Amino acid sequence: MPDTRTIRPYLESLVAEAARAAVAAGDLPDVAIPGAAIERPKDPANGDFASTLPLRLARAAMRPPVEIAQAIASHVPPDPVIEPPVVAPPGFINFRLSVPFLQQQVEHIISAGDEYANLNLGDGKSAQVEFVSANPTGPLHVGNGRGAAIGDALANVLEAAGYRVEREYYVNDAGTQTDYFAETLYARYQQLFGRDVPIPEDGYPGSYMIELAEEVKGRHGDAYLRPPGDPLPAELSELGINLMVERIRRTLERFGVRYDRWYSEKSLYESGGAYERAMAILREAGMLVERDGALWFASSELGEDKDNVVVRSDGRPTYYASDIAYHWDKFIRRGFNLVIDVWGADHHGHVSRLKTATRAVGADPEALHILLYQLVTLKRGGEVVRLSKRSGEIITLDELIDEVGADAARFFFLLRSPGAQMDFDLDLAVRQSSENPVYYVQYAHARLCSILERAREQGLSPDGGDVGRLVAPHELALVREMMRLVDVIENVATRFEPQHLPHYAQDLATAFHAFNDAFKQQNDPGLKVLTEDEGLSRARLRLVLAARVALARVLGLMGMTAPERM
Fold it and tell me: What residues contact 526, with CB distance under 8 A and at least 6 apart?
């Protein structure tokens, strides 16, 4: 017997067998039978699933699709999972799941618990999701928060889809920006000892650099002070980066994000490291050429519109060289089967050339997916909020968490497609009403918990409830919506579109609210969850328990909490 995870392939097999039976019976010409193409109809009134196989067979069979559909449908045997199929123009075969099958899914969801809707698409393959990876030269801002929500949700869904997932933060602790950061820190540090030292022209003027210098002084006193005019101590640069990385780590943990690895860019350049290995591969392939005193990757020979510099004339590797080495390390040294980079939209021009370099070092560019997300505009009272109230500078992710909470921030960041610019309504995010989608969804979970708690107070439990008594339309509609989580997980895991999670969460909350409010709309006390009929009450409590499992599951995939009280 199939369940929510296997119903689609089950129906595909059923239709394919019926099509072959129609051919064997002479009702259809002898043609090759492609995949049965089971999908969900746009209009639920047409059923739970539909096959478009007749439309795909029309040319080969030289028959009208409706005739083909009728021939196939006539050979679908009686099955306890579905009602008799219905043919609809221009050539669909529509299926409606049987009531007993829907009822049984309640038990399946409850028994699956935290693993409900898990799939095996990944089949244990390894996947790496690298996200945020902001330069450790300043605090995370709200745009970084959007990348964090997207990356972490994708990682959660890939795990649910059967991948072994590693979350990674790439720490840019090498390069020019790191030098400017260290020089700024040293200037601020010297100022604390009364020296009249300006920060570098290309340095970081934010007040956080003063706070960082004060932290260094508080911990180490004047240990890093050198005679005026002397170069800054190298160990101060490393200390400053480490302190900033620790701040970033704390911010992300407040946001509910924890990484499996913080990968140092410096490690790429260690003796025998990824940089040497990747450059050696390119050199042996004749893909590196010297020109104008610099070293170029001859990417134009691989289809790019131009070559790209990998080592500048001053001997310093470019960011592109670092990325080539880093992705060699991901694919070749560590052997990830799937790699997802979550980047800001300003990296758009870098996508094609990185895929080209990935192929050049021996990896599969089709296994590399670079997801670009657009900027975030914060609004309060309809007005754009640009600067921090606290410091007059950029609005940090910490400030956003302080104002609206991590759950609301995550939900709103996920609500729009990553490629779409988004307006974040700060007022709406904290509003305790159904207008706020975060409140609407979490309140649904709290109501589910409240019903179960109220039942316990009355000596009732879901245990032993007979789901065969769940026959009302609003009860079965809730089951159907819970089953759809499998499709959502598959969609997100294969198309990397995490925005389907919050939209599904709202749909599931709506289905529950409709179920719970049905008795009010029809003024029929018999439609309450807890009725005078103890057997019916227990059956409905099992449905409530299953709905709580499903809603908590999608909240968890988004990295949000599932509150029991609100």
Answer: 519, 533
Tell me: the pLDDT tens digits for 85-144?
999 999 999 999 999 999 999 999 999 999 999 999 999 999 999 999 999 999 999 999
Is domain 104-109+435-557 in CATH 1.10.150.120, yes or no?
no
Alpha carbon distance 51, 58 (integer Å): 13
Q: Which CATH superfamily is domain 128-170+257-373 in?
A: HUPs (3.40.50.620)
Q: What top-level class would CATH report for the domain 7-97?
A: alpha beta
Q: Is there a contact between 472 and 518 (Cβ–Cβ < 8 Å)?
A: yes
Q: Give start-end residues of each CATH 1.10.730.10 domain in the chain.
A: 104-109+435-557
Written as one letter, the residue type at 39 is: E
pLDDT tens profile 314-350: 999 999 999 999 999 999 999 999 999 999 999 998 9
Cβ atoms of residues 372 and 351 within 8 Å: yes
Contacts with 38 (C-beta within 8 Å, 6 or more apart), sequence order:
8, 11, 12, 15, 49, 50, 51
Closest CA to 277 of 325, 309, 327: 325
